[in-house]
Amino acid sequence: MVKTTLNRFAVAAFLLALALLCTATARAGVLYSSPLPNAHINTGTGQSDIAPAYGSLADANLPGSPSEPYILGDQFSLSGTTNSITSFTIYEVGNDPVSEFGSATDNPTQEFSALDLYVGPDGADLNLASTSYTYSQVKFSDGENYQSINSPDRYYPIFAITFTVSGLTLPDGIYDFAVGDTPIGDNTFALLMGASNGYTGADHSQTLGNGFLYYFYDGSGGTPVATYEYAPGAGLISGYTNSHEVDALAIVNGTSTPEPSTFALLALGLGGLLTGLRRRAR
Question: Which of 36, 79, 181, 212 could form a disulfide with 189 if both were Cys (CB 3.0 to 4.6 A apart)?
Fold first, then answer.
């Protein structure tokens, strides 16, 4: 009777391990997460949220170069052997003011005729990954909208912009992304960032902690290439005094195949269960 019970447990464990081995071949879900900050929000000197607007600067890699338009982005990391990205979410602060807890009166399609997502290996030129997106207004955990650091009596809506991505499969490693825009009228794109002091118990992927990236377009009609990074205290964000590193927010979804070591561990456990099953069956 004891022997029969052990056999049943062994069979159940064997089937569980087999199911784990099958499901481990492709894990769908969040591949990288740098969400909205949930601490030190809209608090002046220690404010963790900041949304620098796009503008123009001289390319630091080309001394004496004229001022040129730039776009912003950052690095993100992937850990699976193969990662098929299906969506990429970033956060943008709108142009029309709202009340502290109010709803937006416009949306990204009214402010920009096009938004472009670029992705590429860290330190290399980026490639166009998507121009198709959906949007929704989101707020901080306390229900607040984004508070201007230069005009504290003004609040602006936050939009989660989710790009649909297809045909983009990447191995594990560090990558860069940037968001390009085509504004309507005098609207400006403001990519929402979060400082490292802005998270308490949040599902927040480890960032590289070296600030966000400025990108200039590589020639006429070319793709963006990272030029230099923002460093705390560099004075590139007017009015922002938080001394912590600042990173662009992004959530990457898709399907990931685990590292080979994961398969090896599962196979080893499966082998041990088979051996135990044989011994108990004798």
Answer: 181
How would you write 173-238 as a 3-class SS string? Answer: EEEEEEEEEEECCCCCCEECEEEHHHCCCCCCCCCCCCCCEEEEECCCCCCEEEEEECCCCCCCCC
In this structure, the number of other CB atoms found within 10 A of the CB of residue 193 comes to: 28
Compute the average pLDDT of residues 161-176: 95
Percent of the chain with pLDDT strictly greater than 70: 72
220, exposed or middle or buried, with CB in 10 Å at 0-12, 13-18, 19+? Answer: exposed
CB neighbour class for 196 (10 Å; exposed up to 12, middle 13-18, buried from 19): middle
Domain ranges of the chain: 1-25+258-282, 27-253
Q: Are 88 and 130 in contact (CB under 8 A)?
A: yes
Cβ neighbors of 36 (< 8 A, separation 6 or more) are 49, 91, 138, 140, 141, 158, 192, 194, 249
Q: Is the pLDDT of residue 282 over 50?
A: no
Please determine, for residue 59, whether its predicted confidence score (pLDDT) is greater than 90.
no
Q: Rounded to whole angstroms, how far apart are CA atoms 91 and 158?
A: 7
At position 197, the amino acid (one-letter code) is N
Exposed, middle or buried: residue 258 (CB in 10 Å: 0-12, 13-18, 19+)?
A: middle
The span from the CA of 216 to the CA of 223, in Å, is 8
**Whole-angstrom Cα distance, residue 98 to residue 156?**
5
CA distance 51 to 49: 7
Cα–Cα nearest to 174, from 246, 248, 78: 78
